[in-house]
Amino acid sequence: MTESKKFSRIIYHILVCGFGFVMVYPLLWMVMSSFKETNTIFTTAGQLIPEKFVLDNYITGWKGFGKVGFGTFFKNSFFISVVATIGTVLSSSLVAYGFARTKFPGRRILFVAMLLSMMLPAQVLMIPQYLWYQKLGWVGTYLPLIVPYYFATQGFFVYLIMNFIDGIPRELDEAAKIDGCSFYGTFGRIIFPLIVPALITSSIFSFMWRWDDFLSALLYVNESIKYPVSLALKLFCDPGSSSDYGAMFAMATLSVLPAIVIFICLQRYLVEGISTSGLKG
Amino acid sequence: MKSKSLSLKQILNEESVAGAIFTLPFIIGFLLFMIVPMLISLYYSFCDYNILSPPVWAGFKNYIKMFTEDSTFLKSIGVTFYFAFVSVPLRLIFALIVAMILFRTTKMTGFYRAAYYLPSIIGGSVAVSILWKRMFAIDGVFNKLLGYIGLNKDFSWLGNKDTAIWVLIVLAVWQFGSSMLIFLASLKQIPTTLYEAAEVDGANKWSQFWKITLPLLTPTIFFNLVMQMINGFLAFTQSYIITQGKPMNSTLFYTVYMYQQSFEFYNTGYGAALAWVMLAIIALITFVLFATKKFWVYDEGV
């Protein structure tokens, strides 16, 4: 390797690292601030490393608001995200199999409906769904945050799994059929085990989106004991709250922890999901 | 008896029956959670309705009021368009530049990609929104860092009506990770023979980018542009948490205004009308983007 090539390489790495540092700086600042003494966070905002590492913010933050601790909020978030994700993955895989492997009257129209529902943003449905759930008596419960996901209402996942099924040779289905397998048996014994990677990708995305979901929690959950983390964090911003910024940063850090852990452990599935189906900004 | 139960089994295993059964969750979900609510709201959008009292038919009143009396509505459309039309192109340009840089693989590439993608993983969360709010506060880290390079450090970025929207734009651009990954995937699909041929013909890197890379990426850019324009138009959490539309409605996103009308002022009928206008606007944006497609998107002949 020539000198100049070596030199340009070093420059490349310095630039990429430098810019990468700017990219993650806000997050580093949040994490570091959560370990600073709460009254020094803004007096020392320009310094990244705390003068003294303290855990007080985590202890006070974990106590939560009123009588409800952050442990409860985390438990609520986990419950909603896990239960909704199970529904999403199961129903989406059934529907995806139906679209990918069977022909039936109305299939085309249904498929177009699914693509349209993918384009149709949740915010447009915000008011209509609210009125509808109010009629059903679901407001104030977790039902609006869970039940719709058991009906494959997120076309993105159907589409993702469908693409995956299309990659499985049809000869497998035919062999199963000759051996006397019904469509249901083929799905349960042949296809389902083979689409596990797609199901993992879907679960990750679904879990993270449910975890971050703020709007529907804001609309439908109205008792603080039922708050998920996203809604509980907002309480730190409310006027009249104690504005303990240390506690706020500590709990904010904890709230992004699951996503970051998932990202680090399961990066491969995430990257594949994004690059093959190319969705979501 | 036995033959009857067998025939039921056979019916269930008819391809068309099985297909309908597998897609049944979607059929029910689509009707129950999309079509029915949309019809209800279509009806309410033509009514005087405020949750407390029963709806009264009012014809086009809500729609007319929107365009003639409600200056906040027009303001919020302006703000939202500005946000989407500035942040989405900026984000795509950033994503493309970084993808080009990271396309060259070294031992560190995996680590770099992760670092650049990290903000996008958690970008939509409330945690990041409250973080952003504190970063750009008067005593926040942004002003402190500006102070180090000798710039005015007591500026209220969120309190000024010209800069507040930029705080939100920067937050959106910061999350260019998904687009970057999509660009990286499409860059991989460009055959290297094209570049080799261009090299033989004496084209430099710069013209290779403009003549080969960029044209072949236009389908990806187009797809990203459509999806993100829609998402940009729908941004809610950032504006709701960071600025609440302040100051002077300069950051009042359409979705936040819709939320306020429906759930804070209880003008449910009016909110429903706003939702339908939003749908129309999104359809219009999509339509216009598709209409421009043939002028700049490379056609792969599919």
SSE topology sketch:
The complex is a heterodimer of chains A (281) and B (302).
Chain A (H helix, E strand, L loop, with lengths): L2 H32 L21 H7 L7 H32 L5 H13 L2 H15 L6 H4 L8 H12 L3 H9 L4 H12 L1 H17 L2 H6 L8 H6 L10 H21 L1 H11 L4
Helix pairs in contact in A: 1-13, 2-13, 3-7, 3-10, 7-10, 8-9, 10-14
Chain B lengths: L1 H11 L2 H8 L1 H22 L1 E4 L2 E5 L3 H8 L2 H33 L5 H14 L3 H10 L5 H8 L15 H11 L2 H12 L3 H9 L4 H29 L3 H7 L10 H11 L3 H29 L6
Antiparallel strand pairs in B: 1-2
Structure explained in plain terms:
The complex is a heterodimer of chains A (281) and B (302). With 281 residues, chain A is an all-alpha fold. Chain A has two domains: 52 residues, no CATH class; 216 residues, MetI-like (MetI-like fold, Orthogonal Bundle), CATH 1.10.3720.10. Chain A has 14 helices and no strands. In chain A, α3 packs across α7. The relative contact order of chain A is 0.13. The mean pLDDT of chain A is 86. With 302 residues, chain B is an all-alpha fold. Chain B folds into two domains: 44 residues; 234 residues, MetI-like (MetI-like fold, Orthogonal Bundle), CATH 1.10.3720.10. Chain B has 15 helices and two strands. The mean pLDDT of chain B is 86. At the A-B interface, α1, α3, α4, α5 and α9 of A face α2, α3, α5, α6 and α7 of B.
Tags for this model:
heterodimer, A: 281 residues, mainly alpha, MetI-like fold, 2 domains, 0% strand, B: 302 residues, two-stranded antiparallel sheet, 15 helices, globular
CATH topology of the largest domain in chain A: MetI-like fold
Please count the beta strands of chain A (DSSP E, at least 2 residues each).
0
Choose one word for the global shape of chain B: globular
Strand order of the largest sheet of chain B: 1-2
Radius of gyration of chain A (CA) equals 24 Å
CATH architecture of the largest domain in chain B: Orthogonal Bundle
User: Whole-Å distance between the termini of chain B?
Assistant: 54 Å
Q: State Rg of chain B.
A: 25 Å
| Structural class by helix and strand composition of chain B | mainly alpha
The general outline of chain A is globular
Structural class by SSE content of chain A: mainly alpha
